[in-house]
Amino acid sequence: MKRFLLFLPLIIFVLVGAFLYKGLSMDPSARESALLGKPMPEFSLPNLHDPLQQITQENLLGEVFILNVWGSWCPSCYDEHEEIVRMAQAGIPIVGLNYKDERSKAFRYLSQLGNPYSLVLFEEDGLRELAFNLGVYGAPETFIFDRDGIVRYHLAGVITPQLVDQVIMPEVRKWQTAQ
Amino acid sequence: MEVLFLPEFGQFALILALAMACVQAFLPLIGSFTRQPLWLAYAQPAAWAQFTLLAISFILLSLSFLFDDFSLAYTAANSNSALPWFYKLSAVWGAHEGSLLLWLLILAGWTFAVSLSRGLPAEVLARVLSVLGFVSVGMLLFVVFTSNPFDRILPRIPVDGADLNPLLQDPGLIFHPPLLYMGYVGFAVTFAFALAALWSGQLDSAWARWSRPWTTSAWAFLTVGIALGSWWAYYELGWGGWWFWDPVENASLMPWLTGTALMHSLAITEKRGVFKSWTLLLAIFTFSLSLVGFFLVRSGVLNSVHAFANDPERGFFLLILLAVTVGASLLIYAIRVPNLKARVSYSLLSRDVLLLANNLILVIASIMVLLGTLYPLILDALGTGKISVGPPYFNALFVPLMLLLGVLLGLGPLTDWKQMQWQKLKKKIWLAGVITLVLGVAVLPWVYDGQWHLYVALGLTLVLWIFTTSLRDLWEAAQTKRGWLGISRSRLGMFFGHIGAALIVLGVTMVSNYGEERDLRMQIDQPVEVKGYQFTLKELIHREGPNFIADRAIVEVHNPSGKLINTLTPEKRLYTVRGMPMTQVAIDWGFLKDIYVAMGEELTADAWAMRVHYKPFVRWLWLGALIAALGGVLAITDRRYSSKKAQEQLTAITKGSL
């Protein structure tokens, strides 16, 4: 019995460890972004599906759209993919930003889960372009840009169904109807 | 471009350091099982080599910063050619990768120091170095595989770096991380001594004696590190608080609390040979909490103002590292710790029991901080949403615990080991008790503003209690032939440690009860009043710094009798590279009060929203921490640790027990 008591610290630690492990696959609640109200940074990135085509901020301006940062290495991105498909089906233009990934893995990801993105930008590891200037330090992250390319919403973390219905969709509609 | 290849050499040195750490960890381990002294002897030179290699690696990374080598991803993300040279250097530990390298260098430094200590039997030394080697191997693997500071961005080298986070461009932040890490990592030494003792099965009080100076030094560093962090938060973040119960602060507080407990319980184990298994467990706990804190900060599982890069791969690696280190050590503990039945007895009123109570309170406080910090995580894992518990939770639990601790703290030094007659104790404390109660309850709470406050009474009573009992203890210590000069350094160390604690309580009590914060509109030449002081905005200036542009306000402060006491110049800066606004606070500081002015928003061309704080006695908080740390330093320099005679005695004891 006394021996068993000596194992108690270990057992408690294992329990704490289990929560920490669970915690790893969750994302901390959305941070209030310092980017709100800031314009889209200048960038030039290749199209994931067409490496020769360079896309700049000019190509994206003019309509309200969602920018979703993802990577095939990111477990939470798989979790939120369904919600992105749902938003795309609701007619919202979503631009993907494939972050720190490899082309082949990104292709496999999209062919397995479906491609909801109207366009996917490809920012290789070490490039210091859009994700870098947006202060992205993990995936997934999601931004809403208005017609003038101003950041109107920023979520660092997983998109949940509630977030889509209660925050993201209304936010997009709001900026679409704004003059 | 003579620096072109430096990072590659740094990387190479890092990998060699990993190899040396492996030698340091494994050869003594094998040697101790096969009883081969030669293999044991590898530990020391391997530790030296590891330290040298890590130092080379660190210096090369620093050179890359000094020479603005932006082909390094880490340099490019955290430095800028316009940065002053000293911030270029401190930017080395301004983010994840470099701070890890600093962590490792400090671990190697502690290891090096241990390897030089005299009087340790060769076998014990080899075991301790081996355990430290294992810790180092784990962390080096983490750096080499997931967080390499020497990664290049090729071929597209950025023209300039993204600049060091402006929050970190501050003298306080040059020293804060190294001091903090000295503390965290220093506990690894105690941890290693504990594991080495469990490993060998020699659980006499010798290991407690060897561990004590290391634990106390680590504790002193951690104390100063935390205080510096708190001071930095106070003047740099611009909202005037000094403690936020932020996860990262909590991460540093938890090992501090258990480390404080450990320091005391090592004293009992050394002096009286009791609570051995408890002390061992505390040693493991303290370093484990350092690692848990490290995990919480680096894995991104919690939100914090100190956000580090969060990358799932890193988090996973760290969790494994944590699981192996803590899990293995707790397993070894459970298997190896003998069912020690204390042969020594002690009565209910004795220093032994009071110290045990001190330990329990500190450990409960630490667990409570851990729970509060992990609470959002646990709730989220159980699927009940994301809620964090804020300062109310921590204050509600922490304050009563610390009050209780303070009461016992007064009694402890005056109580004898083993057994104390209540009559005898009463004789020692009655005077202190009367002074404390009369001044603390009936007099002092009225002095400041003529009104009686319960919390002020509680806080000040405690301060007086600690002061009077500590003085009484010091007076008793002086009743020897040599009088006041005969007081040993360790006794003085305890005195200063406790007085430091009292001063912290004093600062906290005064600033939380009498402090005032106001948000005001200030217009040029129109004075406003806070706590009787008059603040007049005289001028608004636009100026340019090396890597920022700033609006500066000139504010004249007049005291209640109308005399000009200071002209303060707070600034609102915009760091151009990151586009990050920063508040540069202006403080008129004094021992009795700080007057603190920060700029908020521009309202019109000649008016700003300003934040004015009145902070009585706030300095005493940090001063108290410094004095407590000084106490630690005094205790380490006690002659019984350094004199030759003591060393020989110790060696003799150890040889006897072998």
Automatic annotation (TrEMBL), chain A:
InterPro entries xrefs: Periplasmic_diS_OxRdtase_DsbE, Redoxin, Thioredoxin-like_sf, Thioredoxin_CS, Thioredoxin_domain, Thioredoxin_ResA/DsbE_sf
The Thioredoxin domain covers 34-177
Q: Where in the cell is it found?
A: Cell inner membrane
| Assigned keywords, A-Z | Cytochrome c-type biogenesis, Disulfide bond, Redox-active center
According to its UniProt record, what is one Pfam family this protein matches? Redoxin
The entry sums up its family as follows:
Belongs to the thioredoxin family. DsbE subfamily.
| UniProt name for this protein | Thiol:disulfide interchange protein DsbE
Q: Which organism is it from?
A: Marinospirillum insulare
UniProtKB/TrEMBL annotation, chain B:
Task: Give the chief site where it resides.
Answer: membrane
Q: Which Pfam families match?
A: CcmF_C (PF16327), Cytochrom_C_asm (PF01578)
Q: Give residue ranges for domain Cytochrome c-type biogenesis protein CcmF C-terminal.
A: 319-639
Q: Cytochrome c assembly protein domain: which residues? A: 93-299
Transmembrane region(s): 12-34, 46-67, 100-117, 124-145, 181-201, 213-233, 253-269, 278-296, 316-335, 356-378, 398-417, 429-448, 454-471, 492-512, 617-637
Transmembrane helix is among the record's keywords = yes
Q: Which InterPro entries match?
A: CcmF_C (IPR032523), Cyt_c_assembly (IPR002541), Cyt_c_biogenesis (IPR003567), Cyt_c_biogenesis_CcmF (IPR003568)
- Highest taxon in the source lineage: Bacteria
Q: Is S-adenosyl-L-methionine set as a keyword in this record?
A: no
Annotated compartments: Cell inner membrane
Keywords from the named record: Cell inner membrane, Cell membrane, Cytochrome c-type biogenesis, Membrane, Transmembrane, Transmembrane helix
Tell me what topology the record assigns in the membrane: Multi-pass membrane protein
Q: Which PANTHER family match?
A: CYTOCHROME C ASSEMBLY PROTEIN-RELATED, CYTOCHROME C-TYPE BIOGENESIS PROTEIN CCMF
Please give the family membership noted in the entry: Belongs to the CcmF/CycK/Ccl1/NrfE/CcsA family.
Q: What is this protein's function?
A: Required for the biogenesis of c-type cytochromes. Possible subunit of a heme lyase.
**Know the name of this protein?**
Cytochrome c-type biogenesis protein CcmF
Q: Which organism is it from?
A: Marinospirillum insulare
